[in-house]
Amino acid sequence: MESFRLNKTIATRVVQGHPWIYRNELPKLPLDFPPGELVELADPKGRFIAIGYCNPKSVISVRILSREREKIDGDFFLRKIAGADAYRKRFYAGEESYRVVYSEADLLPGLIVDRYGSYIVIQVLTAGMERHTESILAAIESLFSPQAIVARNDIPSRALEGFPVERKVLSGKLEPPVVILKNGLAFEIDLLEGQKTGFFLDQSENYLQLEGLVAGGEVLDTFCYTGGWSVHAARFGAKAVIGIDASEGALDLARRNAARNGFESRCRFEAGNVFDLLKAQEGEGREYDCIILDPPSFVKRRKEIENAVRGYKEINLRAMKLLRPGGFLLTCSCSYHLSEGRFREILLDAARDVGRTLRLVTLRSQAKDHPVLLSLPETEYLKCIVLQVLSP
């Protein structure tokens, strides 16, 4: 196994818990260095500090797997995935749909494992994890005995690691429709074509924030996807819910999910561009008691931040104009590069521009099955803010 001796600054950062080493922090590697090869890391005196895997083609060249000198084999992955699952069961006893492994936050960088009842969906994001796919699948089979394991290796970063972007069933048989229970509600999901791995598991706990906000009210759910927010709004007593999304396929699922839970008479879904719809409804004088904004990420790279700020401000500003006094805005950003502080500034600027006074009801992040590694801020990305309009 290759050994890299790190300078004092980088070694200290690793010892303090940071899991990455960047390409410019390593010695020059041979052109034929095998992507994903295991390496040992040492301090300036040659003392062992960690084991990781290395891909010199990646900007993040080393991702740390262990801070002990141990074998990275089938037993290692079985132990790590079992430990990650045990953590979830502390909070989700009886639940069958949750994120089992969240990459660096579970000390398995480059690996996502989601459980949807009897199905498991994995994402293998890096060359280092790709090398251990066989051990990962064996661990999953041993722990969960799934009906099928689906690979959603359709993340663009895989191409940067030198691997194909693909979706496929790795083992077993996928038998649609796949229906899961979440917060006592039934949702049909698409494991091969749906966004993320089929469902927004990271919002699972935030859906419950609608209780007390929507009873007897009219709700507009934008970027509604397959109806997660809409169906929860109906469950918590909304009189009428309109869901808007650009995808007809997602809307078909949303309609089936509303009907599956007995809410088809209160939930209506329409295809459309959310920005255009909000502008048009302002001209029509429409008003709502609660508006939900849960858009896809507007910021993929740090250099896009200013354009994203304009997009977030516009969409929130237009939503604020459509809220009745006393109404609620539930607004989200899943962009890591947009900090919580900057997001709050955007909301305050939008409120000033439309002459509305807003009260912060709650500020939340991702669910507990998407834990945050304190030494790696990149593992915290979701902002979910609930505001109340106090004046027109």
From TrEMBL:
<dbReference type="GO" id="GO:0005737">
    <property type="term" value="C:cytoplasm"/>
</dbReference>
<comment type="similarity">
    <text>Belongs to the methyltransferase superfamily. RlmI family.</text>
</comment>
<keyword id="KW-0489">Methyltransferase</keyword>
<dbReference type="GO" id="GO:0032259">
    <property type="term" value="P:methylation"/>
</dbReference>
<keyword id="KW-0963">Cytoplasm</keyword>
<dbReference type="InterPro" id="IPR036974">
    <property type="entry name" value="PUA_sf"/>
</dbReference>
<feature type="domain" description="PUA">
    <location>
        <begin position="5"/>
        <end position="86"/>
    </location>
</feature>
<dbReference type="InterPro" id="IPR002478">
    <property type="entry name" value="PUA"/>
</dbReference>
<dbReference type="GO" id="GO:0006364">
    <property type="term" value="P:rRNA processing"/>
</dbReference>
<keyword id="KW-0949">S-adenosyl-L-methionine</keyword>
<dbReference type="GO" id="GO:0003723">
    <property type="term" value="F:RNA binding"/>
</dbReference>
<keyword id="KW-0808">Transferase</keyword>
<dbReference type="InterPro" id="IPR015947">
    <property type="entry name" value="PUA-like_sf"/>
</dbReference>
<dbReference type="InterPro" id="IPR041532">
    <property type="entry name" value="RlmI-like_PUA"/>
</dbReference>
<dbReference type="InterPro" id="IPR019614">
    <property type="entry name" value="SAM-dep_methyl-trfase"/>
</dbReference>
<keyword id="KW-0698">rRNA processing</keyword>
<keyword id="KW-0694">RNA-binding</keyword>
<dbReference type="Pfam" id="PF17785">
    <property type="entry name" value="PUA_3"/>
</dbReference>
<dbReference type="Pfam" id="PF10672">
    <property type="entry name" value="Methyltrans_SAM"/>
</dbReference>
<dbReference type="GO" id="GO:0008168">
    <property type="term" value="F:methyltransferase activity"/>
</dbReference>
<protein>
    <submittedName>
        <fullName>Class I SAM-dependent rRNA methyltransferase</fullName>
    </submittedName>
</protein>
<dbReference type="InterPro" id="IPR029063">
    <property type="entry name" value="SAM-dependent_MTases_sf"/>
</dbReference>
